[in-house]
Amino acid sequence: MSRTGIESALDLLSNETRFDILRALASQQFEEPGASGMTFSDLFAEAATDDSGNFNYHLNRLLDRLVVKEGECYRLTHGGIQLFSLLQATTYAPEHEHRTIQLDRNCPLCPADLSATYREGYLEIGCGDHLVLEIYVPPSWIESRSTDAFLDCVSLLFHHHIEKIAASICPLCWGALGHGLRTDEQPYPLQYYYPCSQCGTELRLVPPQTVMHHREVEAFYRDRGIELRETPPWKLYDTYGEMRVLPGADARVEFELSVKGDTTVMTVDGRSNLLAFEPEG
Ligand SMILES: [Zn+2]
Ligand SMILES: [Zn+2]
Predict the structure, then answer these.
(1) Percent of the chain scored above 70 by pLDDT?
(2) Which residues surround ligand 1, an ion (CB under 5 A)?
(3) Mean of the per-residue pLDDT values for the chain?
(4) Domain ranges of the chain
């Protein structure tokens, strides 16, 4: 979103009467999906003003941007629905801050227990010493779901992220992603990074994750009893072996995957390309 686009959206939200109108329409939208909208008098009754001229001015400012009028009824535009869905999904969940969920397995890098801790909208997966994975999750998920259902959703979200990153699309805002390789990260020194030119978020993947949805990689795991897309990312780190940067300027990394005693060697470039795949007997 351009600076003027952001300013104009924030400006629309910054007035109390306009916000009352949007909130009333959003509440109806979420409580009665498919409703035809609200009339002028319905909306006026919801606003904290008794000046109908002033109310009309603010309603008109929203028209054709976040609100449309059809017949006598006003409703949110697609953009208005998205904006409110986002505000609702990203409402901070302070009562769950620092909540920790035990994942019933060891850290892939040490004998300590692996756990997931919710912090400022992010789920941090690791032990006290190693942060293995960090993923943004909508705070509404941790508020409204059982622990098992929440972890299932996080796993699904991770796999969606993998697909979007493979297409150079930011999973958070749909902006364009760049890419590069870092060689001094912790706890996994080699990590591909993907900066978003639109929202500024930088996503990171360890090399095996960049190709985990490739047919050959899925088949390697499936033949050994693991359905990759149904497996949470934190259960896969134990299968990642040695990784090393190959000579050349194209940021290729070679790594081993080991599943149930079988090992394979793969080469990737961080752009979701599987350049070499050598099954070992
Ligand atoms: Zn650890
Ligand atoms: Zn983004």
Answers:
(1) 96
(2) 107, 109-110, 112, 127, 129-130
(3) 90
(4) 3-89, 94-279
What is the biggest distance separating any 2 CA atoms in the chain, rounded to whole angstroms?
80
**How far apart are the C-alpha atoms of 148 and 256, rounded to whole Å?**
31
Ligand nearest to the CA of 161: 2
Please answer whether residues 100 and 117 qualify as being in contact, where contact means their C-beta atoms are separated by less than 8 angstroms.
yes
> What pTM does this model have?
0.78
Residues in the chain: 281
CATH number belonging to domain 3-89: 1.10.10.10
- Whether 217 contacts 226, CB under 8 Å: no
Q: Could you tell me which residues come within 8 angstroms of residue 89 by beta carbon, excluding any fewer than 6 positions away?
A: 138, 139, 140
Taking ligand 2, which is a single-atom ion, which protein residues have CB atoms under 5 Å away?
Answer: 170, 172-173, 175, 196, 198-199
How far does residue 41's CA lie from ligand 2's centre (Å)? 39
Nearest to 11 by CA among 77, 58, 48: 58
Q: What is the mean pLDDT of residues 209-228?
A: 96
- pLDDT digits 0-9 by tens, 163-218: 999 999 999 888 899 999 999 999 999 999 999 998 788 999 999 999 999 999 99
- State the Cα–Cα distance between residues 13 and 6, nearest whole angstrom: 11
